[in-house]
TrEMBL record:
<feature type="transmembrane region" description="Helical">
    <location>
        <begin position="168"/>
        <end position="187"/>
    </location>
</feature>
<feature type="transmembrane region" description="Helical">
    <location>
        <begin position="397"/>
        <end position="416"/>
    </location>
</feature>
<keyword id="KW-0472">Membrane</keyword>
<dbReference type="GO" id="GO:0005886">
    <property type="term" value="C:plasma membrane"/>
</dbReference>
<feature type="transmembrane region" description="Helical">
    <location>
        <begin position="30"/>
        <end position="50"/>
    </location>
</feature>
<feature type="transmembrane region" description="Helical">
    <location>
        <begin position="359"/>
        <end position="376"/>
    </location>
</feature>
<keyword id="KW-1133">Transmembrane helix</keyword>
<protein>
    <submittedName>
        <fullName>Flippase</fullName>
    </submittedName>
</protein>
<feature type="transmembrane region" description="Helical">
    <location>
        <begin position="273"/>
        <end position="303"/>
    </location>
</feature>
<feature type="transmembrane region" description="Helical">
    <location>
        <begin position="199"/>
        <end position="224"/>
    </location>
</feature>
<feature type="transmembrane region" description="Helical">
    <location>
        <begin position="422"/>
        <end position="440"/>
    </location>
</feature>
<keyword id="KW-0812">Transmembrane</keyword>
<feature type="transmembrane region" description="Helical">
    <location>
        <begin position="140"/>
        <end position="161"/>
    </location>
</feature>
<dbReference type="InterPro" id="IPR050833">
    <property type="entry name" value="Poly_Biosynth_Transport"/>
</dbReference>
<feature type="transmembrane region" description="Helical">
    <location>
        <begin position="115"/>
        <end position="134"/>
    </location>
</feature>
<feature type="transmembrane region" description="Helical">
    <location>
        <begin position="245"/>
        <end position="267"/>
    </location>
</feature>
<feature type="transmembrane region" description="Helical">
    <location>
        <begin position="62"/>
        <end position="84"/>
    </location>
</feature>
Length: 451
């Protein structure tokens, strides 16, 4: 359950890969993109169904528990962040099948240790938060943690399948998981009037079944019975990739992962939490929409029908791709800002209309977030030495942005509730996105001068 820039960056990695991909196998590409689009629509349908079934008050408690259960996963879990899983998969893909099987076992057992720490941390946290937040249910948090546990192990299977270049299996598993969740959610709606616990257990069951299928795929593709244990130097590389800067994830959680929900939970009720959390989820999905449309649909068509269309260098690719994303993100967010009252009333019901103001404010930041994914993609593709230098500079700037958000959020949330939270989050995200864009521009210009 990683949200924010991780998810948007993951969707936009394909932008770089498409530059060197051949134009053949168009049917396969269309099939994969159609399945991804279908998975996204099913996921949206699940949220709509839950929101309409629970109502704003209970839905707010559910989203807050879900957010608390997932926000620390990139720091506690093995390879749960996009960048870490990508680097581990690249390391694993360079080894022989028997050694890849050994790496799978190594990651699998380390993830069990992470799960133990995760469970202990949240058992303590559930009791502590009961005394801090007046409208908090520790039972919902513990159930949400239970639903998250299969995802921790699924990440290991996902890394291994990615290292085997079996993106087709990952796509099908993702679609199957969403379909299964939708089925269980529909069954849960028949249990009682407010089946929030049943919804969480539905997620748990679907995640567990999907995990079993993912492990079966790994077992069929790798010689696990002949696995070779990775050597000490390979283990060091893997551990280094697992434990990328925790400070980086903490700052990302403050700026992009809805950390202002803590202040809203302290000063306001669950209904306000539900309105704001749903607004943040929608804006996060919009951030990834323009990069996904460009990388999965528009750019392949450009390559096919304009074969002479080529980028001169990385800087030229960065500038032109950013322009494409601007031309997509601005109209999408403008339409959403204008029509969001009608869209919310149609899909979620009139009870959710109070979230129009925070949603419109957050959609402004979504434009900048979409554009910033291009820079994040290019920076993630740099050499290891450059990556460490970039991360160090990003941390220094993001530390300032995180402090700015905290300073703004405290009075704004206290005075204006979810609207104040949206203003503080939007300003922080715009600053963070602009910094990422400028850093990428500076890095690419420096590389061009050295060539």
């Amino acid at each position: 359950m990683v949200g924010g820039r991780d998810m948007a960056a993951a969707q936009s990695y394909a932008i770089r890969d498409k530059h060197s991909a051949p134009t053949k196998r168009n049917h396969t590409r269309i099939w994969k993109n159609s399945v991804l689009t279908g998975s996204m629509l099913i996921n949206v349908s699940i949220y709509i169904l839950i929101a309409r079934s629970l109502g704003p008050h209970v839905f707010g408690s559910y989203l807050f528990a879900q957010w608390l259960a997932s926000v620390t996963i990139p720091m506690l879990g093995t390879g749960m962040s996009t960048l870490a899983s990508r680097q581990i998969a690249e390391t694993q893909s360079r080894e022989s099948p028997r050694l890849m099987a050994g790496i799978f076992y190594f990651l699998w057992y380390r993830q069990h240790r992470s799960i133990l720490w995760y469970c202990l941390a949240y058992l303590l946290l559930s009791f502590v938060l009961t005394h801090i937040f007046h409208d908090f249910s520790p039972g919902l948090l513990l159930l949400s943690c239970l639903a998250t546990l299969p995802l921790l192990l699924s990440s290991v299977a996902g890394i291994t399948l990615r290292s085997l270049r079996r993106s087709d299996l990952l796509i099908m598993l993702n679609l199957f998981g969403h379909l299964l969740t939708l089925l269980f959610i529909l069954i849960s709606t028949q249990i009682n009037e407010e089946p929030v616990e049943s919804f969480i257990l539905a997620f748990t069951l679907s995640h567990t079944i999907t995990l079993v299928l993912a492990v079966i795929c790994v077992v069929s593709l790798l010689p696990l019975e002949q696995a070779l244990a990775p050597g000490i130097f390979l283990k060091e590389r893997l551990i280094h990739n697992m434990h990328l800067s925790r400070l980086h994830f903490a700052l990302d959680a403050i700026v992009w992962q809805r950390s202002e929900l803590l202040l809203l939970a302290f000063w306001h009720n669950s209904e306000v939490l539900g309105f704001y959390a749903l607004s943040a989820i929608i804006s996060t999905r919009i951030i990834g929409l323009a990069p996904a449309l460009f990388s999965q649909w528009i750019f392949p068509l450009v390559i096919r029908y304009l074969p002479r269309h080529r980028y001169l260098n990385q800087y030229d690719a960065f500038v032109k791709t950013s322009c494409y994303i601007i031309f997509l993100a601005v109209p999408i967010c403008t339409v959403m800002i204008l029509l969001c009252p009608h869209i919310l009333a149609l899909f979620f019901g009139s009870a959710y209309l109070p979230m129009v103001k925070p949603l419109r404010i957050l959609l402004i930041a979504a434009v900048f977030g979409s554009i910033a994914t291009v820079g994040l993609t290019h920076m993630a593709s740099q050499e290891q030495h450059d990556m460490q230098h970039i991360q160090r500079i990003q941390q220094e700037f993001n530390l300032g942005v995180a402090c700015l958000k905290i300073v703004l959020a405290l009075p704004l949330v206290l005075l204006w509730g979810m609207v104040g939270a949206a203003i503080a989050s939007t300003l922080a995200q715009i600053f963070s996105a602009v910094i990422s864009i400028l850093l990428c521009k500076k890095l690419l210009m420096r590389h061009e001068k050295l060539l």
